[in-house]
User: Which sequence fits this backbone?
């Protein structure tokens, strides 16, 4: 049906507009040999400032028209790579970078020409996007969302047959918390108060310490919350943020966009990606000596891309360090439900600091949570929140003001954030099916993590730490010198060279370690544990075959 | 049920944590006489930098604990108003500012103590949030959203009885456009390709000119799209953005947050908020002479807060001006469906520029659209898109990169954006009910606009232009000198003084003109036309009574 609308519209265009505007101005009639955006692979921040290249570019992207002076350079105000905000240019985001663009291209080629590659599908292991790889949503959550989207069916008899009784009840409760039951209205800029009450109660139940709904800011996933904090903290490049290396590149991207300085601290791969306090102190002092005011410490627990789960003792040391140095602790706790080893447990930094006797005035702490991760994996819903404690009323007011400029986060995401913090309980009609779905997903993820970890460790030159939590493995590849030279010749980083070869040979998409940061001279890649379990044997055998062939080709 | 969870969690806390941590650190046990956030009214960017006030503040907000040195000033890195990013401090957003905070406080007082004010409800006319005031969502849109949220019911027999056939069909079509039918997966960072195809076809049908799905970037409402463009365009405060005065304060807020300079151009109130090209030229030259590089022109059409609909001729002049000066035209077209006068019609700037023979290489143009406005008013869904034309592939790549850092916009919002650009058509099962809902809303809005306009114009000292479109009236109040003096004494702007008195007397919330900008020495306020039609007579009589009393009190 859509196709026919588009076709009709196109026919309409052909009969109502002049030939000239169609031939000279229409995007769809551009004869350019240059592919339309996205380019693949993108040129690395190339600048086209000379009059000649400007002209060439303009010539390639559109035909000259009688009304334009296409030879003249653009006015200084117009937007070119040279007049773009340089912070944007500096920002990088490898999770959706060059390798992914290549993967999309290969996918298109497979669609148009099946059999054109030595694999029949692209397997996206580049991103923590469980449902894109076949994970099913939790039924109860989706029932409640659907009912809140279309409350008109709530009291229809057919609804009883389609939805569980507790989903219907929960939908009514949520609607009653929304002024006028209007799920289509902007909410309070921190989110609907009743949903924040539910989330605060969920945090209290998790931590055993009070949580205040006024400390909760609901956001469209965790990313906008991280941006908001970076925006508040960054005055200039003399402001620094301590970030783990390897890190989730949202942090480096956000720091670059806000014009601050990333102060790296290295996780110790030899001790299972240990976070060591002396390293924090060393890097803080080094930054200070360069005139950097370090404002904040980012900790990702469970780790991304590294998968480690911090021990309580370690967390206490981190809290003490932030308190002593007056740093805002930005705690990325979005993988709090993803723990795969029996000897580790998730503890929020708020709980740890409260057990140490530290309250609001002792430490400024922001905890990020998201509906995209956990066993729910609802990435497309863009729900999440930050719990903001230990700031003055004046700063809280500023955070509220920035939140208010975007009015509010999406209401479905808000509802889902309340649901993941308050799922069905023993005795609820959905409890058993909910528990079965949840346990099925988490135990399968745990098995997949172990199988992939073992597979990596069985390969020549690869060592891989355990994924204690989160959704990723971050194996280290000891690349032969010959491969490093070949990468140099191809003007790419050795790990990107490996990942590109892997993709071209197997259709498996992973992200080069250079996108996350790594100790110079070491090479890694991030691979999610998310392919469905029945696909894991094929993934392992494709990876193994490729790796053997690669090593045979490049072994010193 | 929520309440009992919270209570249980609180009981758990009381039995498992020490008295000390409860009494000295818990947010809920803080004995502070200072209200918890949000403050009401907020102190205007007050600074508490002296050691004494720092101490006083800390003392008021939390009890000292043995483990903290509350007398010592905080380390220079910790976050105070003095160490906050000054751009954040500078940003203002009146639509959710001081008056709204007061309204929320009054609402709470009414709830706790009915009869405590001379009105029984707060009427939020401060913001274009139709469903918060009782407007019902379009049934077809909600049916499709609910089905996409919970596709498991699509082939159940009960579903046929609950949902219209074309909603079921549309949900299937949309699911087929999503890889793996996974509405819970992150999508392409520009949005799901099939939905962008639908939107492009809708734009083609609207304009009669081709639209390219690769030009569409789906966003969480229009606000993040505006921020993204400001981020790309702004290098320093020497970069300027031409904005109408009065303007929608998202623009001033976003420019402040990104550190640029707002270059104002004044709309001519005497000619129905006319946008005059000589004024644009004058302000551009004035900015240039101050060393400002003007990068872009913002046009809001239909106007917010001013409600005018631009004539085609005028739009041509604007396009020509942008082309000549090399400015990026940022066209806020979110009210494209809200036109209330028969002699005016919405024309997109893309259509206008294409009819002038200008194509991609002649003019850089961004059109913003949102699901929050129109007859649909789905503010809580946070859906929208920008159509980006006339940029080089390199710049497009940078826009894509910035979009990719936040992964994607929410899928429900994406789906809804496709629906508003491709609603039911003649012959579809829902067409008649859809049309009746749509026409009912738009014709009622038109009547409400006229009634309120007439009411304002009947008041002493008030003149009000017609709302040809959008959702607002922006009457001018000729305040008596005595009122201006009283405002000065109360240390507030005269229009804010009037609005505060109006709220306290009637419960009606409007936004002072100073939040939007106005010719110095003139005073206005913005009032939405959104109260339900049966409430309009009461609004008019409350407004009229208040205004008469106000004028009697302050008449010179």
Assistant:
């Amino acid at each position: 049906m859509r196709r026919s609308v588009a076709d009709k519209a196109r026919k309409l265009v052909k009969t109502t507009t002049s030939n000239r505007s169609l031939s000279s101005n229409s995007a769809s009639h551009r004869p350019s040999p240059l592919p339309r955006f996205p380019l693949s692979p993108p040129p690395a921040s190339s600048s086209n400032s000379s009059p000649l290249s400007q002209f060439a570019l303009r010539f390639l992207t559109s035909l000259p028209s009688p009304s334009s002076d296409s030879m003249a350079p653009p006015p200084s105000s117009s937007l070119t790579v040279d007049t773009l905000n340089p912070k944007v240019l500096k920002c990088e985001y490898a999770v959706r970078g060059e390798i992914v663009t290549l993967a999309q291209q290969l996918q298109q080629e497979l669609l148009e020409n099946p059999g054109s590659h030595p694999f029949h599908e692209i397997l996206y292991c580049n991103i923590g996007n469980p449902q894109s790889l076949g994970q099913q949503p939790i039924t109860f959550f989706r029932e409640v969302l659907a009912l809140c989207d279309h409350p008109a069916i709530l009291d229809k008899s057919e609804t009883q047959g389609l939805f569980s009784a507790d989903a219907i009840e929960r939908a009514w409760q949520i609607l009653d918390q929304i002024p006028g039951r209007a799920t289509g209205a902007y909410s309070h800029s921190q989110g609907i108060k009743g949903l924040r009450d539910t989330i605060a109660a969920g945090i209290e139940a998790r931590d055993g310490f009070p949580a205040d709904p006024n400390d909760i800011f609901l956001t469209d996933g965790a990313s906008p919350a991280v941006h908001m904090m970076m925006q508040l903290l960054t005055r200039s490049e003399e402001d620094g943020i301590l970030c783990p290396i390897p890190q989730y590149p949202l942090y480096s991207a956000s720091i670059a966009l806000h014009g601050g300085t990333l102060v790296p601290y290295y996780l110790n791969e030899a001790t299972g990606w240990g976070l060591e306090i002396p390293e924090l102190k060393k890097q803080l002092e080094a930054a200070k000596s360069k005139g950097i005011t370090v404002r904040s410490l980012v900790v990702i627990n469970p780790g991304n891309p590294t998968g480690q789960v911090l021990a309580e003792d370690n967390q206490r040391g981190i809290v003490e360090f932030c308190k002593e140095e007056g740093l805002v602790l930005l705690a990325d706790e979005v993988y709090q439900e993803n723990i795969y080893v029996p000897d580790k447990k998730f503890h929020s930094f708020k709980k740890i600091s409260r057990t140490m006797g530290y309250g609001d005035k002792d430490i400024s702490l922001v905890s990020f949570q998201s509906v995209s991760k956990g066993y729910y994996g609802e990435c497309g819903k863009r729900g999440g929140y930050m719990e903001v404690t230990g700031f003055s009323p004046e700063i809280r007011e500023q955070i509220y003001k920035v939140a208010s400029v975007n009015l509010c986060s999406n209401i479905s995401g808000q509802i889902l954030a309340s649901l993941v913090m308050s799922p069905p309980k023993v005795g609820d009609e959905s409890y058993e099916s909910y528990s079965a779905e949840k346990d099925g997903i988490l135990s399968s993820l745990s098995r997949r993590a172990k199988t992939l970890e073992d597979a990596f460790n069985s390969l020549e030159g690869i060592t891989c730490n355990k994924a204690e939590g989160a959704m990723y493995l971050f194996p280290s590849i000891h690349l032969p010198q010959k491969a490093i030279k070949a990468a140099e010749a191809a003007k790419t980083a050795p790990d990107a060279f490996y990942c590109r070869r892997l993709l071209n040979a197997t259709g498996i998409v992973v992200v080069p370690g250079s996108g996350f940061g790594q100790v110079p001279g070491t090479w890694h890649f991030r691979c999610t544990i998310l392919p469905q379990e029945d696909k894991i044997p094929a993934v392992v055998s494709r990876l193994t075959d490729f790796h053997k062939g690669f090593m045979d080709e490049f072994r010193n």
User: Anything to note?
Assistant: The CA atoms of residues 186 and 408 of chain A lie 6 Å apart.
